[in-house]
Amino acid sequence: ITDDEERANTYRTILSPVLNLIAGSTLRRILAHLHCLSQQSSKNLMTVENISAVWGPTLMHAGGKSAEDWNKAETAVVGDLIKLYPKLFQLSPADLAKEARILEVLERHHSSNNGVRGAPSGDLKIWIYLFQRDGECCNVTIGPQKTAYDVCRELAEKTKIPAHELCLEESTLAGALQRPLHHAEKVLEVVARWGYCDSEDRKDNVLILKKDRLYRDIVPR
């Protein structure tokens, strides 16, 4: 059958008796998604042929004597269903307009991703003191994955001290408690934990960049 309308009618005649309401709705949503992906093939390389090769064995099993025969039949039928999705489910003008809006949003998303990006969400700017609480301080951007060593490496040039000779220290309770951070410790997690303290206890909490005393003590001179 070469005519698209006739093929869609044939598939509908075959599928309608064997699909209940839930199965039919599920198939429609899957094919809608795959059809939408295929419309973006110039950007995601997911042509109908590529999608059907992956989804064919998942959506159906054609039977036959060899795996090669199964794959060819599955790929051909699923590819047909994806291509014929609008005709197969007889989409109304409102449905087609909705599909067009989805594609428009995806186009804007792709365009914005190709432009200049802003700062990733989840980043926090904090002040880090250099060597003492009342000394000079620097504004440093802290992301979820930024470690204490990353901060040391970032500030090494400013301090003219190699990063491996620096450490980041947490000073809490107005300096009553001081703790050097492990080099792999996530700085954002340290700062976030201050939120569990009483406001009076945490108001003077700071991070201080210091020379690594342990390094100085163990390295032979």
From TrEMBL:
Gene3D superfamilies listed in its UniProt record: Phosphatidylinositol 3-kinase Catalytic Subunit, Chain A, domain 1, Rho GTPase activation protein
The organism's place on the tree of life at top rank: Eukaryota
SUPFAM superfamilies assigned: GTPase activation domain, GAP, Ubiquitin-like
Domain Ras-associating: 120-214
Location of the Rho-GAP domain: 1-89
Gene Ontology CC terms: cytoplasm
A Gene Ontology molecular function term of the record: phosphatidylinositol-3,4,5-trisphosphate binding
InterPro entries linked: Arf-Rho-GAP_ANK-PH_domain (IPR052227), RA_dom (IPR000159), Rho_GTPase_activation_prot (IPR008936), RhoGAP_dom (IPR000198), Ubiquitin-like_domsf (IPR029071)
GO biological process, one term: signal transduction
Name of protein: Rho-GAP domain-containing protein
